[in-house]
Amino acid sequence: MGMSKLNVYISETDDPCKISKRTWYVTIFNCDGTVLEHCDRRFLLIPARCGHVEIEVPPGCYYIKAVWGFVQVGPGVFRVNHFTDAAIVTLCCHDAVCVRLFNPSVHRCGFIYAKALQDLARQGVIEANLANRVERIVDEVAERDEGRPALRFEVPLHDEIEARLKEIIRAEQKPLKKPKKNGDAK
Question: What is the pairing mode between strands 4-13 and 96-103?
């Protein structure tokens, strides 16, 4: 079976035409929602430096997301500061496929959620006054959140993800080495 190349790009916030300059962490899921595993490798929280990573994967259909900005708030519980929309991709043997994950701001996420609730109210699934209350709250949060990082949400994670996130956080906290200038001793 021939492997396939998957190039994942993450957009700048609310700008699908530009690539992010930050490091993101990409996870590739199987269609059943489990993390892809192949040859003893789990495709979990793969660093995408400057908004890009190329990954060799077996042929299949995958669901892909990326996140950045982890903060541990308790044993096995992390806050994820920002996450992308998802992409679904199907790869055949020896394919080379590019996907771009859209990086929405909290404002877009909140407004889409509020719109979805309004749609449910129109369909009679929920009461209109509930949808209206949520929309007012989303509006209030968006007004207060101008220019700040996205809202956080808590996600319970199992031990393997917790250990990986701790590695990533430690690595990101290390001071950067200054590049050597021409003429410096090697």
Answer: parallel
What Å distances lie between residue 144 and 7, 83, 113, 150, 171, CA to CA? 36, 20, 18, 11, 32
How long a stretch of residues is the chain? 186
Cβ neighbours of 119 (radius 10 Å)? 12
- Within 10 angstroms of residue 108's Cβ, the number of other Cβ atoms is 16
Q: Which of 62, 68, 110, 106 is nearest to 87 (CA)?
A: 62
Range 50-83 burial, b when 16+ CB lie within 10 A, else e:
ebbbebebeeeebbbbbbbbbeeeeeeebebebb
83-106 pLDDT, tens digit each: 888 999 999 999 999 999 998 876
